[in-house]
Structures
1.
Amino acid sequence: MANPYDTLPPTAFWRSGVVTEQPKAVHGIYRPKYPIGPDSKIMTAGSCFAQHIHHALRVQDWSVLDLESPNGGFPQEALAKYGYGQFSGRYGNIYTLRQMVQLLCEAFGISKPSDPVWQRSDGRFIDAQRPTVEPDGFDTPDMVLQARNDHLKAVRQLFEQTEVFIFTLGGTETWMHKDTGTVFPTAPGVIASPRHPNAFRFHNFTQNQILRELKVLRDFGRKISGSFKMLLTVSPVPMTATASGMHILSANTYSKSTLRAAVGEFAQAHHDVDYFPSYELITNPMSHGAFYGDNMRNVRTSGVDCAMDTFFAAHDANNAPSKAQTEAHPNDLDPACEDVLLSPIKEQTTETGRAS
Amino acid sequence: MKILVMGTSHTAALRDAADWIGATYPDLDVTYFSLPGFYHARAQMNGPWFGPAKDDDKGRDISLQMNGCTAINLDDFAHILHIGSRFSLVKCSQLMADFDILGHPTRTGRPLMTRAAALGLIAASVEQDVATRSVMADHDPRFTFMPAPYPLARSRMHGAGHEPALSRLDARDTAQDWADTYSKVIQTTLANVENHFLAQPVSTLAAPFFTDNIYALTEDTADNRHMNASFGQAVFAHFATHRLGLDPVTHITAATPFAGRQHDSAHPASSRQNAI
C-alpha cells in the first residue's frame, strides 16, 4: 500500500531537498504566489538585511522606490552614512512590525508617537525613530521635528505608490513607552536618551501580537491600494543582544521562530501575502555557516547573492542567477545596524562587571 | 620654468591663447597636452609618462593629432596646470538645486536636507572624483587643478545646451553660498592630496556657476561649455599670479598678436581676487 510520502517531490525530503542540494541554489524553495517584475513598484523596509535586498534590487535596475535620496549617483557609502539609499525611505532600520505600522499611522496622520526627540550625551538632538540618519545630530528639537515632518510626507507618497511591499522582520524585542505603547528602534541610553527614561519598558512581542500587526499592515495597504501586496522575509542576522533575561542564543531562537511562525501563518491565510525564505537560505545547515562572516552574525556577500539569486530566478526567467552578483553592498558584510552599538556595552560589562 | 597645461578639451582655450601666454610670460616654457574627456579619463600613467594606453589606438591617434605625441613625461615640468575636471558638478548642482537646507531661512517646498548631509555627500563625490586622478597627481604639489569652466550664462535658456540643474540653482538665493562652499570643498579635497586648486577667475563669471557669454567659443548655443582664447588668457594669468607668483604686468611686453578675442578680464590687473 502506498503511503502519503510516496508521491511527494524531492523538495519534501531532507536528503533530496537539502543534503544533496547546493546550498547556493536550493531548488523549489521559493515558489512565488504572484509575479514581481522589474517594473513592479517595490517598497523596501525592515531590519539590516532589508538593506541588502534594497541594494540588490537597485543594482538589478528593478523599480525599487526611493523617494528621499538625492539623484545623480552619489557614492553609496556616503549616502548610507546619512541614511539615504538603504531603503525606499529614509527611515533607517525598522526592526519590528509595530514600528512599521506606527510609522505609517504617523505618516497618514492617524497617530503620533510619543517622545520623538531624544538627546545625545554631546547635547545634540536626534530623531528617536531613526536615530542614526544624521550622524552629527540636530541643533535643536525643532529641527528634528521639521526634518521628521518632511520625512513623513515622503513616506506617505512612497506608500501610496507602492505595489509590492517587501518587509524584513528583524526581531521581537523592543523598547516601548509605557503609557502610549510607542515603540523605538533603540533602548534609551544606547544612542541618546529621552527626557524620562523611566517611562520606557522592555517588550518582547508574541506571535499573536505580530499576527495582529501584520493584519493592520495588510489592511492599511489594501485601503491605500486595492492591488497592494506584501512579501515578507525574516532576517537571518542574529540579534546582537537581548534584554529578555534569556541567553542570547535562546532569545534569538525565540525571536526568529516567533517571527517565522507568524509570517508563515499569515502568508498561508492571504493570497496577496507571500513569504521569501531568506532566513532558511542563509541558515541552511548545508552551508556550514559559510554565509556568515567571522562574527557569525553579518551575512557575507555570498549569502546575500544566494538569497537574491533565488529571488530573481523565481521572478525573472531571463535573469541568470549570477547577474545578482554584480556589485557587493558597500558595507559588504556590515550594513548599518543600530543594535551593533550594544556590543561595546556588553563587552564593557564583561570586562568590568564580572569575569568572562 | 617649464609649465605643462594639460587636461580635457577645455584645455583648448589656453592652447588658443598660447601666443598671448608666450608673449606675456616670456620666461615660461609652456607645453600643452590635452585629450577629449572620454580619452583623458581612460589615459594612464606609464612611469612618468601620461597618455592613452598602448591598446587605445583611437586615443593615441587623437593624441597625435592634438599634441603631436602620444604621451607626455610629467617629470619634465616644474608646474602642471590641469584643466577640465568636473568634480561631480552635475550631481552636486542637482542636490543644491533640488533640496532646501534645514535651518536656512528660505524654504521653497522642496525636500529638506541638513547642511551636514549635503556637505557630506558633495565632499564624498568630489573625493571620488579626485581619487580617479590619484595615479597621476596624488601627493604631487606640482599639480594645480582648475575645474572645467562653468557653462555659459546663455545655457539658462531652454533649448540645445540647456543646463537644467544649474539653471534651477540659479533661480535660488542660495546659489552664491553653494558656489563658495563647493569651491572650498574642492580646494580642501585637493589639499588633502597635496594638490592645488585654482578657482575659475571671478571676472569670467556672469553669475554663480555661469560663465560670461563673451567667452563663448562658438555662436552655436548647443555648446555652452567650451570657451575661447580670452578665457584661456584669463585663466593662465590667474594661475601665473596666484600659483607662480609672477607679476603679470612686468611680463606684458608690447602688444602681441594672438588668436582669439581679448577681453579686459584677461588682463590680470583687472581680475578680482579669487580663492586659489
2.
Amino acid sequence: MGYQPVKFYQTGSFVVGNRLLEAQDRTVQADMKRTNSLTLGHRACQGCGEALGARYAIDAAMRATDGKVIAANATGCLEVFTTPFPETSWQIPWIHSLFGNVAAVGTGIAAAMKVKGRTDIRVVAQAGDGGTVDIGFGVLSGMFERNDDVLFICYDNEAYMNTGVQRSGATPPAAKTSTTEAVGAHPGADFGKGKNLPLIAMAHEIPYVATATVAELHDLEYKVEKAMSFRGARYLHVLVPCPLGWGSAPSDTIRLSRLAKESGLFPVFEAEYGEVTGSSKIRSQVPVEEYLRPQRRYQHLFRPSANTEVIAQLQAIADKNIRRFDLLDTQSQSTSGNSLADQEALQTR
Amino acid sequence: MLQQIEGSLAVAKAAALCRPEVICAYPISPQTHIVENLSVMVKSGELSPCEFVNVESEFAAMSVAIGASAAGARSYTATASQGLLFMIEAVYNAAGLGLPIVMTLANRAIGAPINIWNDHTDSMAVRDSGWIQLYAETNQDAVDLHIQAFRLAEEISLPVMVNMDGFILTHAVERVDIPEQEQVDRFLPHFEPKQILDPNDPVSIGSMVGPEAFSEVRYLAHAKQLLALERIPEIANEFDSIFSRYAGGLVSKYHLDGAETIIVAMGSILGTIKDAVDELRDAGLSIGVLGITTFRPFPLDAVREALSTAKRVVVLEKAFSVGLGGILSANITTALGNSAIKRYSVVAGLGGRSILRSSLVDFFKLADADEIGELTFLDLNHDVIDREISRMQTSVRPRPAAERIVHDLGHSTKAN
C-alpha cells in the first residue's frame, strides 16, 4: 500500500513534511520538475477539492508516464473552470467533448494510440460524480468491460455542483441538495438510494480500482502511479469536498476529506481484478457527527435539535464500511509507524 | 474491379480501401452488414493497422470516433435511424469540434411506431448538425462517395455522412466497380489532422465559448460548409481523373434541358423516377429529373441554375416535417426564391413503402397538368385515416393508433 507508514503527528493531521522523506518518496508536487498540468489562472472556487485532486492526479500521471498523457474531460466544474475560451489552464493535450461520453472519448484516444504504435502515450479520462455514476455510466461500463487502456478518474463531490447542487447518484443519504431539500418528513437525500461506483467497477474485474481523498495527497499520487503500472481499464474514485455544495468553509476541505475517511463514511481502499488488496486504515476513528456537523448540507440533522435516529443510520453506514473494508487495524493504530514491516513496505512499493 | 456484390459489402470494401485506423460501431439494421464485414477484415488482418471497437451504444460509437479523430486517427463508423438519434449529441459535437469523421448512414425510418425500413427521417433529423450530407443513388455511388468523403472531410476538417438507402441499397446485390488500392491511395493522401492531441505540442480542444465569440465560431462552421460547396465538384473531377468515372458533385441532372416539369429527389428513388420520366418523355411530356447529391451544404446556386427553365418543380421526398410538410421542398424553395416556378411536394416511401413506377407515372402526369395539391402523400390509404380520425373523436380511449390501423388493414385485406 502507498499509505505513509512514517507518521509524524506534529501537525495533528498525519501530514508528513517532504523534507523528512527520502527523495524518491516525496510527493510529485515537491518535485521541481512537476509538470503543473493544471496551472494557475483557473477559476475554481476557493477551497475546491476537485481542482486540488485533479492537479495532483494529473501531475502524478505525467510523472508516471514521462510526460506522455492525453486527458479527456467530461462537462462539469473541472471543464468549465479550467477552459473559459480563449484561455486554458491545461498544459497537457486535453479534450472536452460532452457530459456523458468521456470514457468513450478516452477509448477512442487509446485506440488511436494503439493503432499508431504509440502506447507509450497514456490516456486519462476524468469526470465529476454526475458524469461518472449517472449520465456517463453506460459508456464507462462499456470502457471497463472492453478493458480499454484508460485510467478513469472520478472527482466525487457528491452532487451536481456545476449546475447548482442537485442530487446525483453519488449523493449520500440525508445530504441536502437543491433537489433533495431539507424539508418534509425525511429531509435531505433518501436512504437506500445511490450507487457505489468503486464496487461496480470491481464487478467488471478490471485490473485496478482505488479510492482516495484529497486529505492524503501522497496516497492519491501513489494510486495514480500504481494505476499507470497496469494496462487496461483502471478506475480511481477521489472524494473532493465542495465548499459551495457542502456548505463548508474553504479552509475545511482537507479536514473534511480526512474526517470522511476517519469516520468510515468514505472507505479508502484498492482492488485488483475484482478483489480488494488493501485498505487505508482509520488512524483515529471519529463518530460521523464530527464529519457531518461542519457541513451546512447536514445542518438539518443538528438543528433545532439533533436527529439522533438519522445520525445513527449514517453511523451504521460507516460501521458497515469499516467491517466490509477492514478499516480498523488495532495493531498499527498504536504504533508510530516505524516498524520493520512498514519500512519494508515503503521500500518495496 | 467489377463485382456482383451486396451494397453493404461494397461499402465496407470502399471504407477499408480508405485505410481507416479506428472503426467503432454498434449494430442496428440495416447497417449491420457493413460493420460485420469490416470487423472481419480487421480481425483477419486484411485491414491493418486498424482498431475495431465493439461499443455498447451509438452514443459511444460517435464518442470513440471523436476521441480517435482528435488523436489523429482516420475514424469511421456507421449507423441508422434510432442509432443516429441516440448519438445525436455526439453528432453535433463532432461537427462543432471540426473532426473529419466519416459515417455511413443506412437510411431508415424513425419510430414510434418502430419500423426498420427505409426513409430519410433519420438524416433529416441531423440536417442542421454541421455534418456534410451526401446521398447515394446506387451502390456504385455509395462506394465512390465514401472515398470522396474521406478526402473532403480531412481537407476541410468537417465530418461527412454518406447516406445510402437502408435495404434498398445496403442489401441489394448489384454490379459495382470496386476501385484498386493503388487508385485510392493516389486519390486520398495520408491523414494530416488540422488539430491533434499530442503530448509534444499540447492543445486544449473543446473549451467553453460564451456569447462574446459563439456567433463567430458558429459562422466559421458555416463558412467551412460553403468552402465544401466549392470543393465537392472539384473533388468529383479529381476522382474522375483517377477512377475514370464521375461520381459525387452537388447535383445530378437528367433530361433537364428545357424541361418544363422537373422532379427533384435524393437517393435510390432517383432510379425509379428516371424510369417513370423516360416513359413520360416517350409520351411527349417535357419532364426531367434533378438529383440532390449534396444536401448539406445545400447547393442553392446549382439548384437554382438547374431549375431555371422549369415551369413547375415537384419535390419527392422520403421524409417530412410533421406539422409543416416537405423538408427538401423547403430547401428547394429557398433556392428558387420568389421566382414564378410552381412548387409541389410529394412525400413518399415512408417506412419502406414501395414507390411504384406506375404510381409515379400517374402522379407526374397530374403534376404536369397542375392537377395536384401543394402537398401530397403518395398512395395514402385515406379510408384507414378517416376511420381512425373518427374513432379518435368518438371514443374516450381509442387504444394505440398504430395497432388499430394495422388491425383495420388486416380486416380489409381479409375482406378483399
3.
Amino acid sequence: MIKRFLSCFFILFGIALLYSSTSRKLMSFFKVAKDNNSWWGEFQLTKGDLLELSHLDFIHKLNTQPQNNLKEFTHSLIPAKYNLYLLGDSYIWGLNKSNFDGLTDYHSIDFYGINSFHLDTANKNALIIEISERFIRETMDHNQVTACFYDSLKGKDSENGSNNTRSAPGKDHTILDYFSSITLFNKYINQNLEFNLFTYNFMLPLFETKAAINYYLFGRASGDAILSDDENFLFLKETAVDNGPKSSFSKITSKEITTIVHNLNALDIYYESCGFSKVYLSIIPNPVTIMQPIGYNNLIPLIQNDPHLNMPVIDIYSIFKNNHDVYYLPGDTHWNNKGKQLWVDLVNKTLRN
Amino acid sequence: MTFISLQFLVFFMVVTLWFFRLKNQNGRIWLLLIASCYFYMSFIPEYILILGGTIIVDYFAGIQIEKSEGSNRKFWLVLSIIANIGTLAVFKYYNFFIDNIHTGFLFFGKPLQLQLLKMALPIGLSFHTFQALSYTIEVYRRKQPAERNFVVYALYVMFYPQLVAGPIERPQNVIPQLKEFRPYNWDNVKEGLARMCWGFFKKVVIADRLAMVVERTFGHTAETSSAALFIGAVFYSFQIYCDFSGYSDIALGAAKVMNIRLMENFKQPYLSGSLSEFWTRWHISLSTWFRDYLYIPLGGNRKGEWRRRVNIMVVFLLSGLWHGANWTFIIWGLLHGLFVLILVSKINTGNSAIRKIFSVLFNFIVVTFLWIFFRAENLAAAWIYIKSICSFRGGSNFITLSPAEFIFSLLVIMIMLLREKYLPRHIISQNSRFWIYLFSMVIICYFFGVFKENQFIYFQF
C-alpha cells in the first residue's frame, strides 16, 4: 500500500516538475515566491553573478561590490540635440538621462523585452545598439537575424494598437515552426529543473563544498565560471573555452563576418527607415578578451573594421585594449564603474560630434 | 534530453514507476512509445517527422516482404533500403557529396554554384536507420516474422534507451521482449540502477574531465609540445571509450530496470591484443551489423584471400563513412581496415605474458594514433597532430589540468580499467550494499563530476 502510494506520488511529482519547468508563467511564479532570505529562498546574487555561479564566495578578493557612481550632468554643456534610444543588454542597466550630455530625452530599452516607442520628430533621434561580444555570433550570424533586435522596438505598429510584431526579414513561418513553439520542449528545462530542485538557501553548502573541492584540490572553479590565470578574476566559461559561439577564442570564418556585417547593415537600414537619424553600433568586449587576450579570435576588430559595415561604431574595444587598466568586476560578467564611465564618455563624445 | 541531465533523471523516474504500475503489456508499450517520442522530440521536435516516415515505410515493407514471394519480395526490401539509406544520404551525406563535387570542379577551374542543405543532422539517425534495416533484412531472410502491431514495431525502432546512440539492436532480441509481460523484479532494478551509476561515473568523472585536456591539445596543436599532444591523444582514447561505453551502460541499465535486456556493446576493447580483436570488443552492435549484413553477403572469407581482403576494406570504408560525412572518418576506417590486414598475423602470436602485454600496448598505441583522425577537424589537422607528436619537439606543456587533477585522472582511468576487468557485472545481491554503492556513486559523480552539458560524442552519428 505504502509502495503504491509512494510510486503514484513520485509519478505525479515528476510530471508536475517537468511541466512546471517548461512553463514560463509557473517559473515566474516560483521565482517571485523564492525571492526571500528564508531557508527555502533562492541564493541571492549580491557579490557578483560569476561568483554566485561558481560558489566561490570564500575567495574574498573576488567579491564584487555594486558600483554605479557615474558622472552626472546637472546642466548640459552643449545645447540639447538628441533623443537617445539605447537598445542593449545588462551592461546598460542603471544608466539614466543625467549620465549623458545634451539629450532632449532618453530611453533605455532592454532587448530581451518588447517595447513600444513613439519617435519625437521635433528632435533628432539617435539609436545605439549595444551588444555584448558573447551574443554577437548567436544573434547576428544567421541569415535570419534574431527577431528581438527588430521586435524590441515596435514603433508605430504599437502606437496604433496593432499586434503586428515584425519578424526578422525573410523569416517565413512554416509548419515546422509549430514544433519550435511547443513549450513542452523548452530548451531551458534543465536550468529550470535545477532552480526548482536545488536552488534553495539550505542547499547552498552542497554547492560550496563542490566548489571548494575543485578549487583546493584541482585549482579551478566549477560550474559556468573559470578562474583567470592570475586567479584575480572569474570569467564566464563559455567566453573563455576554445569553442562555441560565445567564446573569444573559437575560430571565426570570413563568411561569418560577412553575414554578421550584412545583418548589422540590415538593422541599420530598418531603424533609419523607422525615423532614426543615426544608428550606432557598440560591441562590449568579453572580459577575457581584454584581460587574457592571447589567442583572441579578433571578432570585434573584424566586424568594426569591415569595409562593408555601414553603421558608425562606438569603439570601446580599442580604448580598453590600449589603456591597460582594469575595467571589469572581479567576480562578475560586467564592467566596473571605470569601464562604464569610459563608455558613457565615449557616447557623449560621439553624440557631441 | 541527454542522459546526463536532470530532465532525463526525472523523466526516467516517471516512466519507470508508471511502467510498473501498468498491469498489461499493451499499456506498457504505449507508455514506452509515447515516452520515447517525448525523449526524441526534446532534442529537435520536428525531426520526429523524419523518423516517423521511415518507421511507417519499414512497417509496411516488413508486412509486404513476408506476404510476397520472388521479385516482389525483393522489391519491398529494396524499397525499404532506399527509404532508409536515402534518408541517411540526404541528411548526412548530401552536403559532403556536394562539397566534394564543388571542390573537384574548382580544382579544374570551373566553379559550380550548388546549393547546400541547411539542416542539422537528425540526432542518432545512423543508429535507428541501421536498426530499422536489420528488421527488414531479417524479415526478408525469414529469420523474423513481420511485426503486425505497429506500436510494437515503432517501439522497436524508438525504444528510448537505445534510440540515439545504440546499441543497434536486432529484432529477434528486442521484439519478443517488448511483447512479453514481465513483472517487477527487484534484482533487475538493482542491476540496472548500478549499471546506470557506472555509466554516469564514466561519463562525468572520466570522459568529461579528459575532454578538458583533449579540447586543449586538439585546439592548440601548433603551440603544444609533443609530450602534451601524446597525452592528449591517449586521453582522447579513454575519453571516447568512457563517453560511448558510459552511454551504453546507462542505456543497458535503464532497459534492465524495465526487465529488457539489450545487447552488450563493449568488452574492454583496450585490452585487445590485435585490431581484429579490438573490433570484436568495440561497438559490438555495429561491427556485428556490418559482419552480418555486409561482410558475409559480400562473400566473407569464402571466396579466397584476395576477396576477403577486399571485403574487409569495403566494410571498414563503410564503417568509417557511417560515423560521419568527413574524410577524417573515411581515412580512419580505411586505416583500420589496412592495419587489420597487415598487423593481425605479425603481432598477435605466442602465448607468453610479456608478449601479450606487448601486443595489448602496441595495439592501444595503434588505436590511439588512429583516433587522431577520428577527432581532428580535417585531414590536415590530423596529419599535423601526428607529425607534431613524432617530432619530439618542445613547446607548451599546458594541458588545462593541475598536477593533482592529472594524477586524479590517471587514477580514475586505472580504477575504471581494473573494475571492468575484474568486476565486469553489476549484480549486487545484498540490499544494504546496493544502497551504499548507489549513494557513494551519486556523491562521487556530484563532487568529482565535470558538468558541462556535453553531448555524448556518438550522438552526432
